[in-house]
Write the structure tokens for this entry.
Amino acid sequence: MPRIPERISVPILRAMKGPMNAARADEALSVLERPVRYDDFSELRGTYVLLVTYKRDGTPIPSPVWFARDGSTLYVWTEVNAFKAKRLRNDPRALLAPCTSRGVPTGDPIAATGRVLSDDAERQHAASVIRSQWGVGRKLFERMSRPMTEVHYLAFEPAPAPG
């Protein structure tokens, strides 16, 4: 798919971030007050999951994201310039919790380990899994956004219980 030149796409993407960030619920951080589970992802159903990744200084950053599951692996895609992938490269720890579209947690978080997929076969598999589980609305969103930016595919596995 041909890309829109960055001089055009970057300002558009920045403009889109404002309303998206403003729509994010302040309650998203309340997920950190819930007990962390060490479990599989079978209870994560629906459209959204609250993904918590960590800055270098340990500050947790929650983001509601669309996801898809394939067995014990959960996949997410995010634009190349999003910080989720950067944070995940620096610290693979993550929390995943069911949530609303605005990021209000609707269940306890599950500890996870994540990574940014770099292998072409893994990226293609993740893309296939994601597309197979997305409805029409998300497929339209992808069609509109993909010409503006490349994406990273993120893969998450349940984290082992401590001890």
In short: The beta strands are 48-54, 60-66, 68-70, 73-79, 93-98, 110-116, 151-158. The helical segments are 6-23, 83-90, 120-133, 136-145. The chain has four helices and seven strands.
